[in-house]
Design a protein that fits this description.
Elements (H helix, E strand, L loop, with lengths): L4 H19 L24 H4 L8 H31 L1
Length: 91
């Protein structure tokens, strides 16, 4: 079976366009304010960090590393496939 690089490029382009277009809809929303007023009271014995409703989750660094690893793995797979096709075509 012949390896078609154009088809792979079209697939990758489609996935990138899909990811960028869906990105706007995947933004997390805050919970609505409770009926008894803004914010929730903290128990007196809780730590201040546990009580803060605006604590952000730091996922930026880990997500960037995973994306970079995925890109590197994809490049390696394409390189290996091209190398395999060149050796099979020469034989």
């Amino acid at each position: 079976m012949r390896y078609n690089i154009t088809r792979t490029i079209y697939k990758a382009f489609f996935l990138v366009v899909l990811a960028v277009s869906v990105c706007n809809y995947a933004i997390a929303q805050d919970d609505p304010e409770p009926d008894d007023g803004p914010g929730t009271p903290c128990p007196p014995d809780s730590a201040l960090d546990d009580c803060d409703p605006d604590n952000d989750v730091p996922i930026d660094g880990g997500a960037g590393i995973l994306v970079a690893a995925g890109v590197a793995y994809g490049i390696k797979k394409v390189y290996d496939k091209r190398k395999q096709n060149k050796t099979s075509a020469a034989a």
